[in-house]
Specification:
By secondary structure, this protein is an alpha/beta fold. The protein folds into two domains: 62 residues, Signal recognition particle alu RNA binding heterodimer, srp9/1 (2-Layer Sandwich), CATH 3.30.720; 52 residues, Signal recognition particle alu RNA binding heterodimer, srp9/1, CATH 3.30.720.110. Helix content is 16%, strand content 34%. It is built from two helices and eight strands, in the order βαββββαβββ. It has a four-stranded mixed beta sheet, with helices on one face. It has a four-stranded mixed beta sheet with strand order 5-8-7-6, with helices on one face. β6 and β7 form a beta hairpin. α1 packs antiparallel against α2. The longest helix has 12 residues. The chain is elongated. It starts with a strand and ends in an 11-residue tail after the last strand. The model has no long low-confidence stretch (mean pLDDT 86).
Length: 146
């Protein structure tokens, strides 16, 4: 049974999609706003421009995203209990992605050489998503250590 991760960004889905496009090269492959939803029961006043459903892809992995359930009266519920792990083989690319995700986010473990992989780090981005970066440098490639 295929499983697709669905992320709810509490009224910030469009901003999150733009951010992941810049930080990770994510591609939005489908986006439907509440005003475009074929069933008006799902819409609330003032939500016309928010995202009813989106699908985005990060290098072959698809995610769904939505503002469904968001109310301007609700405070956002923080994400917890999971992380998205990126497996990379380029230190340069890993540093660029880690830096982009860290912008207005919180570094939990700085990206640094690791005993169990070449480089490893954890960052919680501005939307509360936890990202683990695992960089495995190809064999024969000189390791760049600080």
């Amino acid at each position: 049974m295929p499983t697709v991760t669905t992320l709810n960004f509490c009224g910030q889905t469009e901003a999150a999609l733009d951010f992941y496009a810049k930080a990770l090269g994510a591609e939005t492959i489908f986006l439907m706003r509440f005003r475009e939803c074929p069933d008006p029961r799902y819409s609330q006043q003032g939500m016309d421009d928010l995202v009813f459903h989106a699908t985005f892809r990060i290098e072959g992995t698809e995610f769904m995203a939505s503002d469904v359930g968001f109310s301007k009266d609700n405070s956002p519920v923080p994400f917890s209990g999971f992380s998205l792990a990126l497996q990379l083989n380029s230190l340069e690319r890993g540093k660029r992605i880690f830096s982009a995700l860290s912008d207005r986010g919180r570094i939990m473990i700085p990206l640094s050489p690791s005993a169990f992989t070449s480089w490893y780090g954890i960052v919680i981005d501005r939307f509360g998503i936890s990202w683990k970066l695992n960089i495995v440098e190809p064999i024969g490639q000189p390791s760049v250590r600080p």
